[in-house]
Amino acid sequence: MKPYTDLPYPERELELLEEEQVEFKSSHTIILYNDDVNTFEHVIEMLMVYCDHLPEQAEQCAYLVHHTGKCSVKNGDYDKLVPICSALQEQGLSAQIEG
Fold first, then answer.
1. 0.70 exceeded by the pTM?
2. How far is CA 6 from the centre of its chain?
3. Whole-number Å distance between alpha carbons of 40 and 54
4. Is the pLDDT assigned to residue 10 strictly greater than 80?
5. 66 has a pLDDT exceeding 60
């Protein structure tokens, strides 16, 4: 294996590593919490509408929320998750951004 200094573009390698670290640090998730108000059908529909889940994925998340108390339903940058989380909350779901 060649030493790092022998790479053709060492500054580009460092740049890529820095981008990866920034990307990792900026990752957040929307957590959906269980409640005794919303039906499975409503939760599934809202996950499909606002989180772009497929029906099967939304159903699995709804069951996880019901049985474990919470489930991660969407990952991404904080700024992109805020309107999604707000929409879920406006629809009566218990959701918050963590990360």
1. yes
2. 39
3. 15
4. no
5. yes
The three-state DSSP-derived secondary structure of the chain is: CCCHHHCCCHHHHHHHHHHHHHHHHCEEEEEEECCCCCCHHHHHHHHHHHHCCCHHHHHHHHHHHHHHCEEEEEEEEHHHHHHHHHHHHHCCCEEEEEC
In the predicted structure, residue 69 carries a pLDDT above the cut 60: yes
Instruction: Provide the sign of the torsion angle of the four alpha carbons 67, 96, 99, 78, taken in this order.
Output: positive
22-34 mean pLDDT:
80
**Residue 65, both tokens:** 């929320």
User: 79: how many CB neighbours lie within 10 A of its CB?
Assistant: 9
Is 5 a residue whose pLDDT tops 70?
no
Residue 54 CA to residue 99 CA, distance in Å, equals: 24
